[in-house]
Amino acid sequence: MSDKPTSFARQHQAHQPGDERKMQPQPESFMKDYKAAGKLTGKIALVSGGDSGIGRAVCIGFAKEGAQVAFIYKDEDADAEITCEHIRKAGAPVLAIKGDIASAEFCRDTVRKTVAEFGGLNVLVNNAAEQHVQEDITDISEAQLRQTFDTNIFGTFFLTQAAMEHLSDGDSIINTTSIVAYRGKSVLLDYAATKGALVALTRSLAGSLTERNIRVNAVAPGPIWTPLIPASFSADEVENFGASSPMGRAGQPDEVAPSYIFLASNDASYMTGQVLHPNGGTVIGG
């Protein structure tokens, strides 16, 4: 049997993207049991939303595989510093950049800082996202709709545009979509719409970059225990989060990060325009 938790303490956070330090139990996001093999030695990676959750596990996993890592975070300074500490423990340099990816200028400046610090860019992970629960489409304000698309879609576009002049033969872009892009979620209409758009963007961009041999893929996690969960749902919903998945529990960030490591490495050299589905057993056709 799995030793992963099947239920969680009742909890809610009023601020997104949420604070990992306040979660009970703590997510497994430090890649403690991961066995590295030098798959990303010499690579330079930039990860949005790298301070906690899936992004944190990806950053630490990349570092363990030999990459130099820059990551973006919005405002969770303490979480970001913990991520930095674990990247350094893995023996890798790290650059943490605070700001809002909804700004095209911030995205351009972030890429410039990453290239100036490490000398290039090989892997871009578009992972930062937000979601806001609303029971009815008429309850979604224009401000919420625009903010969700600003972070989840426009931020991905802006970062990708800024990275393009630095990416070259053999490099990789990885987008974080979601199971809700395929299954929908009645209380996350705008979030689900952005994640569906990311699937289409992944496939379209992959086709446009094949001649340059820049691979574009995505990961579509199912229910994963990250700060976004208590920052989005009520304490009652959080308590049983993930229980309806075929495996009967939520996943942990450490169980998702290996998908990104695979897609960033030469092991995935014949994969582009594809989506991986670490989701606890839900079968996705497409």
Give a quick rundown of the structure.
The protein is an alpha/beta fold and 286 residues long. The chain has helices at residues 53-64, 77-89, 104-118, 142-163, 180-183, 189-208, 235-239, 253-264; strands at 44-48, 68-73, 94-98, 123-126, 172-176, 215-219, 275-276.
What is the topological layout?
Layout: E1 44-48, H1 53-64, E2 68-73, H2 77-89, E3 94-98, H3 104-118, E4 123-126, H4 142-163, E5 172-176, H5 180-183, H6 189-208, E6 215-219, H7 235-239, H8 253-264, E7 275-276
Parallel strand pairs: 1-2, 1-4, 2-3, 4-5, 5-6, 6-7
Helix pairs in contact: 1-2, 1-8, 3-4, 4-6
Protein name: SDR family oxidoreductase
Region (Disordered): 1-26
Family: Belongs to the short-chain dehydrogenases/reductases (SDR) family.
Describe the structure.
This protein has a 7-stranded parallel sheet with strand order 3-2-1-4-5-6-7, sandwiched between helices. The two termini are 30 Å apart. It has helices at residues 53-64, 77-89, 104-118, 142-163, 180-183, 189-208, 235-239, 253-264; strands at 44-48, 68-73, 94-98, 123-126, 172-176, 215-219, 275-276. α3 packs parallel to α4 (142-163) and α4 (142-163) runs parallel beside α6 (189-208). The mean pLDDT is 95. It has 286 residues and is an alpha/beta fold. 36% of the residues lie in helices and 11% in strands. The chain has one domain (37-276): Rossmann fold, CATH 3.40.50.720. It has 8 helices and 7 strands. The relative contact order is 0.18.
